[in-house]
Write a structure and sequence with these properties.
The structure holds two protein chains of two kinds.
Chain A (H helix, E strand, L loop, with lengths): L3 E14 L2 E14 L3 E5 L6 H9 L7 E10 L2 E2 L5 H7 L4 E4 L13 H12 L4 H14 L5 H4 L9 H13 L5 E5 L7 H18 L2 E6 L2 H7 L2 E6 L2 E7 H6 L4 H8 L50 E4 L2 E3 L5 H9 L10
Parallel strand pairs in A: 3-8, 3-9, 6-7, 7-8
Antiparallel strand pairs in A: 1-2, 1-4, 4-5, 9-10, 10-12, 11-12
Chain B lengths: L3 H7 L1 H4 L1 H5 L6 H16 L4 H9 L3 H32 L1 H6 L41 H37 L1 H16 L2 H12 L3 H27 L3 H8 L4 H9 L5 H24 L10 H10 L6 H29 L6
Helix pairs in contact in B: 5-16, 6-8, 6-16, 8-9, 8-11, 8-14, 8-16, 9-11, 10-11, 11-14, 12-13, 14-15, 14-16, 15-16
The chains are: A alpha/beta, B mainly alpha.
């Protein structure tokens, strides 16, 4: 069995605001092994990013606070580390790639220097050696002329190149865990594919565990081993990627899959949205947050959070609908039918 | 052969239909040069400073200001360099005999020459003394030039002191926020609320008179402006994503403040610096005018104006006019350059 890198158990992160307590993340658990990629999907505000930032202890406090749960990186308890030790973890053990490469590089510092700084923060390297490593890293993520490029500023890089530079910076200290927060959202489609390739290569090379946050199910299908579906700060379903795509058990997952455009649909077919509004995280129901939008909701849904139910190997779901009924409903949904020949 | 992109860049005259029909008339090397040029242009977009300079160049008033600043700083520097030398030279017999001052000023600024002030009112401008002489027969031109050095020193040193304080307190205030921010900003409010000259007078009376104390008093009072400017910038910069990215790399607070936040907050600070130098020079003149700044026999524009005003009734306009022109021109130079710099760095005005 692969080395277990990260164990997150019952993570809850709340924001204490004037308007009330925002329950951004509510009892989320997952594990990550070496070389594994876990995809976290969900709509905006479902708590994906907050969960990731909680791992890095980068939640602005106040107003945010990790109120519950254990975050274990190997045998290090991330919740009890002091600030200096936590800084040593950031960038070195857990690195992060941000959504918008246009704004996540310091505009007034040369790219090579930024990468070199990240290296010098965690490794005992001189400036010239760090710069040489930076050039090598840039070359490795596919930036031509890396020797010259390290002397350029971010505004001289295109969006895709900046994201490559961000990846170079993130892998510079060979982190165990790489968090990629919507790494392709701000890029155009052709560049997205390249960035996904770079990430996959880097993961193969460094054997990091990757946490991929996205709402792009296509990206998830391409590089994830496991998928966690989040809604309203809760994990509604998790499992191996094939299970989620072909054997989904939660109505929200069905809705997500149904909303994808289909190649086999006719031109006039409209996309199928999930009806209703994303939940207000302050006034979440005590039970399943998806209740107001769920077409199959029943009485107990609103006030009681369903226990985890195992529906396959490593595949779990939180839903009150009994399994047989669930399978019957799903059988009628178009996205789970065999496409007509 | 150029691809479509180069064609667009080149415009129709060169690569229109004529290019297709009259292939001979096109120099084969030209296309290569064009491509190279285009690549070069692409590889080197304008940096912040080049871009600022490009826009500043079109602002004539700012250029005039810059010219004035350069002229006066040169004068001040030359005087500063030769001033020390002069006193050594003066001690020697030949220097006294030759009457050569040994620096930019044509005469010894402190040389009392009653011959040139027969009525005790000095003599009006003449060829040998273009700015005239004062009530002690001292050459006004020489005194004005030497005073330039004092003015420039006050401007630069006082602002350097203010800037240092502001660049420490401002970032701390803006980055940490909360109680620290409140304390520092309320202190800044107090500094702003107090009548400025009165506050300088207060500090001068505590420190005592003296050359350095003028710098210190003006410098210490100036921090609040810079702290406010920097704080405001930092409040907007610190929530940017690259700051979070730096934190995710494991960077500590100090590194984030001084390596990432501050360098991105400097553009308005440069503008304030230019403005503040003008202000500091004016303040020094005011202090000297009031008799608590630069002390005689040293020369200062404020001091000269103060002397002149006392004798103005006698019609000695030249005592007043020339140091006043120097003062007004310098302050105008710094302020108009600062204004131009602000316009040139203002992202809202970018075309």
């Amino acid at each position: 069995m692969a080395e277990r890198l990260l164990t997150v158990k019952d993570l809850s992160t709340h924001f204490f605001t004037h308007a009330g307590v925002v329950k951004a993340v509510n009892g989320v658990s997952f594990t990550l092994d070496r070389g594994e990629t876990i995809g976290i999907v969900g709509e905006s505000g479902s708590g994906k990013t907050v969960a990731a930032l909680s791992l890095m202890r980068l939640i602005p406090d106040p107003p945010g606070k990790v109120v519950e749960g254990s975050l274990m990186l190997g045998d290090k308890d991330l919740r009890t580390l002091n600030d200096a030790d936590m800084r040593a973890v950031r960038g070195n053990d857990i690195a992060m790639i941000f959504q918008d490469p246009m704004t996540s590089l310091n505009p007034v510092m040369k790219v090579g220097k930024q990468i070199a700084e990240a290296i010098m923060l965690h490794q005992d390297k001189g400036k010239s050696e760090a710069l040489r490593m930076a050039a090598a890293l840039l070359a490795r993520v596919g930036i031509p002329d890396a020797d010259k490029r390290i002397d350029q500023y971010p505004f001289e890089f295109s969006g895709g190149m900046r994201q490559r530079a961000m990846i170079a910076m993130a892998i510079s200290c060979n982190p165990d865990v790489l968090i990629a927060d919507e790494p392709t959202t701000a890029l155009d489609v052709t560049i997205q594919a390249q960035i996904i390739d770079v990430m996959r290569e880097m993961q193969a090379q460094y054997e990091s565990g990757v946490i991929l946050i996205t709402h792009d199910l296509g990206v998830i299908a391409e590089i994830s081993d496991k998928v966690m579906v989040m809604y309203g700060g809760r994990t509604v379903e998790y499992g191996p990627v094939d299970e989620i795509f072909y054997n989904a058990h939660h109505p929200y997952t069905w809705g997500l899959l149904a909303s994808l455009p289909r190649l086999d649909a006719s031109e006039k077919t409209r996309l199928t949205p999930i009806k209703g509004q994303p939940p207000n995280l302050i006034t979440l129901p005590a039970g399943c947050p998806f209740t107001p939008r769920c077409p199959y909701r029943r009485e107990q849904c609103r006030d009681n959070w369903p226990e985890h139910e195992s529906v396959g190997p490593e595949h779990g779901v939180h839903c009150w609908i009994p399994v047989e009924e669930r399978l019957a409903i799903r059988g009628d949904l178009p996205q789970f039918r065999e496409p007509a020949a | 052969m150029p691809d479509w992109d180069e064609r667009k860049q080149e415009g129709r005259e060169t690569y229109g239909s004529a290019w297709v029909t009259e292939a001979d008339s096109v120099d084969a090397r030209r296309t290569e040069e064009v491509v190279e040029e285009a690549i070069e242009q692409q590889a080197k977009p304008l940096g912040l400073w080049a871009d600022t300079w490009r826009r500043l160049r079109r602002n004539h008033l700012a250029l005039v200001g810059l010219g004035i600043i350069i002229v006066f700083i040169s004068i001040g520097t030359v005087e500063a360099v030769f001033y020390q030398m002069h006193w050594h030279v003066r001690a020697s017999a030949e220097a006294t005999a030759s009457d050569a001052p040994g620096y930019l000023a044509p005469y010894d600024p402190n040389m009392v020459n009653y011959d040139l002030s027969p009525s005790g009112l000095g003599s009006p401008p003449s060829w040998s003394h273009p700015f005239g002489t004062d009530y002690l027969g001292r050459d006004v031109l020489s005194r004005t030039l030497v005073a330039t050095r004092v003015a420039m020193l006050v401007g630069i040193i006082a602002v350097a002191i203010a800037l240092t304080l502001g660049l420490i307190l401002g970032p701390v205030s803006g980055y940490y926020g909360g109680v620290v921010d409140s304390i520092i900003m309320r202190a800044a409010d107090i500094f702003f609320a107090f009548p400025y000259i009165l506050f300088v007078l207060l500090i001068m009376s505590v420190l005592g008179q003296g050359f350095q104390n003028v710098f210190i008093a003006i410098g210490v009072l100036g921090w609040a402006t810079f702290a406010r400017v920097v704080r405001g910038q930092i409040l907007s910069v610190k929530s940017m994503e690259f700051i979070e990215a730096a934190r995710a790399q494991g960077a500590g607070d100090l590194r984030i403040i001084f390596r990432h936040v501050l360098p991105n907050s400097m553009a308005p600070v440069y503008v304030s610096v230019a403005m503040a130098i003008g202000g500091a020079i004016a303040t020094e003149a005011a202090l000297s005018y009031l008799g608590i700044g630069i002390q005689p026999p040293n020369s200062s524009w404020g001091l000269m104006i103060s002397d002149a005003v006392n004798y103005l009734a006698g019609g000695n306009w030249w005592w007043l006019l020339f140091p006043s022109i120097a003062l007004v021109t310098t302050v105008f130079g710094f302020i108009s350059f600062g204004n131009g710099l602000r316009d040139a760095t203002d992202p809202k005005l970018k075309e």
